[in-house]
Amino acid sequence: MSEFPKDRARGFRPAFHFKNVLDIPASLFAEHGIKGVVLDVDNTITRWELTSVPDEIMAWMDALKERGFKLAFLSNGLSAKLKEVEAQTGIRIVPGKKPFLSSFARARDLLECVDAEIAIVGDQCVTDIWPANRMGWLSILVEPISTSDFLGTQFYRWLERIFGMRTPAR
Ligand SMILES: [Mg+2]
Fold this sequence. Notes:
There is one protein chain. The radius of gyration is 15 Å and the shape is globular. The protein has a single domain (8-163), classed as HAD superfamily/HAD-like (Rossmann fold, 3-Layer(aba) Sandwich), CATH 3.40.50. The protein is an alpha/beta fold. It has a 6-stranded parallel sheet with strand order 1-6-5-2-3-4, with helices on both faces. It contains 6 helices and 6 strands, in the order βαβαβαβαβαβα. It binds magnesium ion (MG). Residues 40, 42-44, 122-124 line the site of magnesium ion.
């Protein structure tokens, strides 16, 4: 519907789709007026079954920080893992009940940005992309870096396939 801002009209579909976070250039954020980047954890910056962030993804996040972007994690993951990731990266984690919007609002407040200045990077259409679109954030989908995941996530992936959600909205 034309009265809705473009991001909200995307539904489950991302604005952009990359294979991996490493393929997302910092210039994409800059071009869209982004100041804060919210990152999913499981299967976006870590393999679901591991607690450590790979060196190349650490370097990608450090490069964003050096360019002045503020980063935060928003994750439904297990708290023991999230504490380890927070300790390794020094990036604050907002524990989430995604796709509910309350945790997205908490991440926005942590970043001290307005919605139009925030991008999300995540590997799931239902829990990452859809709510981010509703917030009016720039939504960027990546492919999961491991095939292991929570049972509920596997159900969402089945929905993504059936409804063809993983194609960027035009
Ligand atoms: Mg994920």
